[in-house]
Amino acid sequence: VQLVESGGGLVQPGGSLRLSCAASGFTVSSYAMYWYRQAPGKEREWVATIISFGGRTNYADSVKGRFTISRDNAKNTVYLQMNSLKPEDTAAYYCRGMFRQYDYWGQGTQVTVSS
Q1: What is the mean pLDDT of the segment spanning 66-87?
Q2: β 102-105/91-99 pair status
Q3: What are the distances in angstroms from CA 41 to CA 22, 37, 85, 91, 104?
Q4: Beta bridge partners of 23
Q5: Cα 63 to the chain's mean position, in Å?
Q6: In sequence order, what DSSP letters do the residues of the chain get, joined into one string?
Q7: How far apart, in whole angstroms, are the C-alpha atoms of residue 100 and residue 115?
Q8: 68/59 Cα distance (integer angstroms)
Q9: Of 6, 49, 52, 12, the residue nearest 30 (C-alpha)
Q10: pLDDT at 96
């Protein structure tokens, strides 16, 4: 079982990035999938969720209206589209998959928002 994030990088304020989380060993459509982030010196915080059945989404207030979580079942991949990025969005971003007793994390991808 593996979750591999990609798509991070350096972007200017107001810019956009799309993060990907490719899963292997399980089916993302059967799991609740999450994005979290952790800034230096801060605790890891929840960013967004997409549930398994129906695909309902939910967002932290700090990213609502700017970030979009989505899922491509054919590619077994979850995405986080991030628009209107702010310096305070700078963090390592992690993907997580949960189903019953199963709880998987990726290794993270760094996002830096700076001019």
Answers
A1: 97
A2: antiparallel
A3: 27, 12, 20, 10, 23
A4: 3
A5: 12
A6: -EEEEE--EEE-TT--EEEEEEEESS-GGGSEEEEEEE-TTS--EEEEEE-SSS--EEE-TTTTTTEEEEEETTTTEEEEEE-S--GGG-EEEEEEEEETTEEEE---EEEEE--
A7: 42
A8: 8
A9: 52
A10: 98
